[in-house]
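Sanity check. The docking grid for F0G depends on where the pocket ends up, so I'm generating a full predicted complex first rather than guessing from homology. Inputs follow.
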Amino acid sequence: MISAALPLPRLQLRCSECAAAQSEQGAAVFCDACGGLLAFELDAQVGFDVARYREVLAERRRSNEVVDRSGVWRFRELLPALVQEKIVTLREGEVPLYDARRGAEYANARRVRYMHLGMNPTASFKDFGMTVAISHARARGARLAICASTGNTSASMAAYAARAGMTAIVLVPDRGISEAKLAQTLDYGAKVVAIGGDFDAALEIVRTVDAKRFAIVNSVNPLRIEGQKTIALILLEASGWRVPDWVILPGGNLGNSSAIGKGFREAHALGLIDRIPRLAVVQAALAAPFVRAFETGMDLVPVHAETTATAIKIGAPASWRKSLAEVRASDGIVIAVSDEAIAESRAVVGLDGIGCEPASAASLAGLRVLVERGIVAPDDDVVLMLTGHMLKDTAYAAAYHAGAAPFANAIARVGNANDARRHLDELARKAG
Ligand code: F0G
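Predicted complex below; grid placement will be based on this.
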């Protein structure tokens, strides 16, 4: 009822590279004319009623309707149109913002929050985009969904495809993806095909499948980007529409930075905010082709990626052009951090009582570097995106704590009850 009274901004599907208009009827992911990635362009019409829209959003937060309880579909007027009965939702997107006390101290900054995208149904940010991609795929009658993945996309696709009654097929690297992510994917019933290559090789295979037979749900699919742009809207809404100075996030295939940048840009074009935050994209040092492209201004040159943050072990990011455009539009930056810095930062996020998976901690490691370099001021209002839950990679955490790293927290192995009591006394004494 409320939504019917709202003016609807129009979204037009175009090629993000040659600008050719595309039909939304098919399952297209790549441009008919040049093979580039497609994007929905928002026509921010004059007369968008900002005050009314904010009211509607507030009303929806009090509603018990399933679509209103989703942090993605609450913004449905800003997404490609879909009749409500076709929506496949797991109540994604209602994610918390936390004060980052230890994280701020570690990075020598004062106003730092974590936005925990790992607090989603499948425990990563992918659910924001997957609900939109799978809903549209099912609505047009697709029976098969496919993706290449370092683990999180696969778990998310598998869950939503299961809800939609679709068959999901995943191509994953046969080594180096976390057991928890694989276990999730298997549990939700997806067919897992492990290839003797890395993520980049898996995505190459996906690019060549017939898009009429398979719904490709990697972030090359513009519907994924539309869903993930609501991360920006949720952040703004939860911050009373106050704009942070910086939003920092890890970059792998570069869909998420493209999406979040788009979300802020559109919120600005619609008049929901009066400026956009600066984006900082952080890569792992040996998986950082985007840093080089950003610094040189040249086309991205793929690399063979290596990092223990397996989620972002990507050497040929598909969405680099889109992401670069968003970073530049926001006066942002792209930097690299070492695997050691990621490991240490991940442990610090844990000490805040929050936790995240390794790749997510690149955001805190990045903040520390940016403060050191004087690019982020100690008083800047900073939001660190935590892209995946701590339990996504417990093997990594266990190995860290068994080692000798700065924040390692070793298990005390005591022989018998007397040793145990002695040890408890000692701990009590230390605690004062
Ligand atoms: N953080 C986590 C936890 C991820 O899983 C990913 C990507 C990223 C950050 C990077 O996001 O690719 O949009 O730049 N994971 C993908 C996957 C590649 O298959 O799960 P991006």
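Relevant for the grid: The chain has 16 helices and twelve strands.
Also worth noting: The longest strand covers residues 167-173.
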